[in-house]
Amino acid sequence: MNVWSDTGAVLPRAFYRRDPLVLAPLLLNKVLVCRHDGRAGRIVEVEAYHGSDDPAAHSYRGKTRRNAVMFGPVGHLYVYFTYGMHWCGNVVCGDDGNGWAVLIRALQPVAGLDLMYAARSRAKNDRQLCNGPARLAQAMSINGAQDGGDLVNGDAYVLVDDGTPAPKRPVQTTRIGLSKAAEYPWRWYVADSPYISKK
């Protein structure tokens, strides 16, 4: 089996010890890999969530059973259920206790597309496989069982640097689909990528 992590370096824990406003654009072009079956996608869109400074963050009002993973350790997956039907995956960052995370909003599929199509039967083309946080979670089989999963030493999902640099000038916009702090310009995406969720 061609496992993408064999062709790149798994990101170290220190990479995640950054403010989400710094980390988010640096995550662009990194590769999310499922170690079980080799499914992989290049990150092309992200959103930052800034804990107690951010009314839209799940951690805004403090630590709860639902959001506990957001408070550390860093370099883990925070996975939550939304609208009673969708899972979304986030990268925990900063320092332990911050409640900071970056939402992975879209991927460009790069490996295991047959498995992604099997998981997302409604997708009509490669672009529709992972162009949104719920879609990519479905395509990559990310669900509540992965909440708290270690992206550095874990046996399920890892983030890999395959040598493709983050874009020097990513597009920066306001976040999408929020009722609070929607005006914060904390969303970044790869310019001209056809795989993002929304221009």
From TrEMBL:
Indicate yes or no for the key word Ribonucleoprotein: no
Protein name (database record)? Putative 3-methyladenine DNA glycosylase
- The portions of this protein that span the membrane are none
Q: Which GO terms describe its molecular function?
A: hydrolase activity, acting on glycosyl bonds
Q: Which Gene3D superfamilies match?
A: Methylpurine-DNA glycosylase (MPG)
Q: Which InterPro entries match?
A: Formyl_transferase-like_C_sf, MPG, MPG_sf
Q: Which Pfam families does the UniProt record give?
A: Pur_DNA_glyco (PF02245)
Q: Which organism is it from?
A: Dyella caseinilytica
Q: What is its EC number?
A: 3.2.2.-
CDD domains in the record: AAG (cd00540)
HAMAP family, A to Z = 3MGH
**Which UniProt keyword terms apply here?**
DNA damage, DNA repair, Glycosidase, Hydrolase
- Give the family this protein belongs to, as stated in its UniProt record: Belongs to the DNA glycosylase MPG family.
The answer to whether UniProt assigns keyword DNA damage to this entry is yes
